[in-house]
C-alpha cells in the first residue's frame, strides 16, 4: 500500500552537524535545539535549512461506538459541536495555530452527526462499531479511510505544506488509541488506561473493561496493520495512520501530538517502515499509553506540559521550538562570519 520510505538525507545531516560546531557558541551549548535543527536539515535535504513557511494542522474528526459504553466524561454530540467550533476559529487549536503561524484544516471522517459539507468530502461513515465486541470498520471502510489519509497528505504537500501536524477530535477516541498501543507494545489494559477527558473512577472502570475486551480481539490481528485498524480504530484514526505514513513517503516532517495521533503513528510505522524517522514528538501527554507509544517509536518528547486535549495542541505548542532550531542553524553567525576566535585546537 505504501512504497519504500527513504530516510532523511544523511549528507545534509553531516553538513548540519558540522555547521553546528562552527556557530558562535560552545559545541552542544544549545542542547536539543541543535539536534532539532539537524533533524530539520536532514528532512529538507539541505543545510542550512529553510525556515518553515506553511505549517499545516489537519484535525481528523470521528466518533466511536465504544463511547456508548460510558467511557468518556462528555456525550457524543460534542464531537460535531467541536467541529463547528474549529470552523468558527474558537478552539484551542485555532488560537495556538494562529500564534504559531500555522493554519488548520478539519476533516470529518466519521462524525456521528451531520456537520458542514465543506469538511465531509472524505467521510467514510457515521461513528464506528463498538470495539469491545465488534469491528470498528468494514474492510472497505478501513481501506477508504487509509486512502483518504494518503490523499489528504498528498493534497497538503502538493499545496506547499512544509511541516504537518495530525490533530484529533472524537469523544471516546482515547479508548481505541489505548487498545492500539497495548496491542502493538504488549502492554496490559491497566497500563494504558488514562483519564481522557477527565473521567471519574466509575468511568475509568468502565473504560478499563472496554479496553480489556477490545484488546482480546485486537491481539489476534496485531501483526496485520490493516486488520488491526479494521478491528480497533475508527475511520479518523485509520485516516491519520495513512496520512502519517504518506507524509513520510513525501519526505515531509511531522510533529506528532498526543496519544491518539501517536497510536496512529504506531500503525503508520507498521504500514510504512521507517516513517518514524520523519517525525518528532511534540509533547508527552498525561495519558499513560502515550509514553509507551513514544518509547516504542524511539521518540523523546520536546515538551511535558501535562496536556491531554488533543486537536494538535501539544504539537503546536512545540512548533516554535522546531522553528527556532531551524533558524538558529540557518541564521546564526559562524565564528568565521563574526570574526570570533573559535575553540582552541
Q: What would you note in describing this structure?
A:
The chain is an alpha/beta fold and 345 residues long. It is built from 13 helices and five strands. The protein has a single domain, classed as Nicotinate-nucleotide-dimethylbenzimidazole phosphoribosyltransferase (CobT), large domain (Rossmann fold, 3-Layer(aba) Sandwich), CATH 3.40.50.10210. It has helices at residues 10-22, 32-44, 77-87, 92-100, 139-158, 174-185, 189-192, 201-218, 225-232, 235-249, 259-271, 288-297, 313-331; strands at 55-62, 103-110, 163-169, 254-256, 279-281. The protein has a five-stranded parallel beta sheet with strand order 2-1-3-4-5, with helices on both faces. The mean pLDDT is 96. Its EC number is 2.4.2.21. GO terms for molecular function: nicotinate-nucleotide-dimethylbenzimidazole phosphoribosyltransferase activity. It comes from Kibdelosporangium aridum.
Supply database-style keywords.
about 350 residues; alpha/beta; Rossmann fold; five-stranded parallel β-sheet; 5 strands; about 50% helix; about 10% strand
Task: Describe the SSE topology.
Layout: H1 10-22, H2 32-44, E1 55-62, H3 77-87, H4 92-100, E2 103-110, H5 139-158, E3 163-169, H6 174-185, H7 189-192, H8 201-218, H9 225-232, H10 235-249, E4 254-256, H11 259-271, E5 279-281, H12 288-297, H13 313-331
Parallel strand pairs: 1-2, 1-3, 3-4, 4-5
Amino acid at each position: 500500500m505504501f512504497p519504500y520510505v527513504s530516510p532523511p538525507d544523511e549528507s545534509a545531516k553531516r553538513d548540519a552537524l558540522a555547521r553546528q560546531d562552527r556557530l558562535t557558541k560552545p559545541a552542544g551549548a544549545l542542547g536539543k535545539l541543535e539536534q532539532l535543527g539537524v533533524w530539520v536539515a536532514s528532512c529538507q535535504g539541505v543545510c542550512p535549512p529553510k525556515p518553515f513557511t506553511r505549517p499545516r494542522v489537519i484535525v481528523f474528526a470521528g466518533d466511536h461506538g465504544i463511547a456508548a459504553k460510558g467511557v468518556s466524561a462528555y456525550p457524543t454530540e460534542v464531537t460535531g459541536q467541536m467541529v463547528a467550533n474549529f470552523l468558527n476559529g474558537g478552539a484551542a487549536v485555532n488560537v495556538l495555530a494562529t500564534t504559531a503561524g500555522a493554519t488548520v484544516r478539519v476533516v470529518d471522517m466519521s462524525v456521528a452527526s451531520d456537520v458542514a459539507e465543506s469538511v465531509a468530502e472524505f467521510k467514510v461513515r457515521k461513528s464506528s462499531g463498538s470495539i469491545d465486541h465488534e469491528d470498528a470498520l468494514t474492510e472497505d471502510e478501513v481501506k477508504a479511510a487509509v486512502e483518504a489519509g494518503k490523499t489528504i497528505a498528498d493534497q497538503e504537500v502538493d499545496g506547499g505544506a512544509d511541516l504537518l501536524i495530525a490533530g484529533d477530535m472524537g469523544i471516546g477516541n482515547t479508548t481505541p488509541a489505548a487498545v492500539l498501543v497495548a496491542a502493538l507494545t504488549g502492554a496490559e489494559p491497566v497500563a494504558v488506561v488514562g483519564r481522557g477527558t477527565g473521567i471519574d473512577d466509575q468511568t475509568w472502570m468502565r473504560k478499563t473493561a472496554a479496553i480489556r475486551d477490545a484488546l482480546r480481539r485486537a491481539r489476534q490481528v496485531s501483526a496485520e496493520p490493516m486488520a488491526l485498524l479494521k478491528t480497533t480504530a475508527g475511520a479518523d484514526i485509520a485516516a491519520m495512520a495513512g496520512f502519517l505514513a504518506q507524509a513520510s513517503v513525501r519526505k515531509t516532517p511531522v510533529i506528532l501530538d498526543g496519544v491518539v495521533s501517536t497510536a496512529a503513528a504506531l500503525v503508520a510505522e507498521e504500514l510504512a517502515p521507517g516513517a518514524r524517522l520523519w517525525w518528532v514528538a511534540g509533547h508527552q501527554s498525561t495519558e499513560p499509553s502515550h509514553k509507551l507509544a513514544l518509547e516504542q517509536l524511539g521518540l523523546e518528547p520536546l515538551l511535558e506540559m501535562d496536556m491531554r486535549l488533543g486537536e494538535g495542541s501539544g504539537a503546536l505548542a512545540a512548533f516554535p521550538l522546531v522553528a527556532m532550531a531551524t533558524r538558529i542553524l540557518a541564521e546564526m553567525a559562524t565564528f568565521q562570519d563574526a570574526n570570533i576566535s573559535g575553540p582552541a585546537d
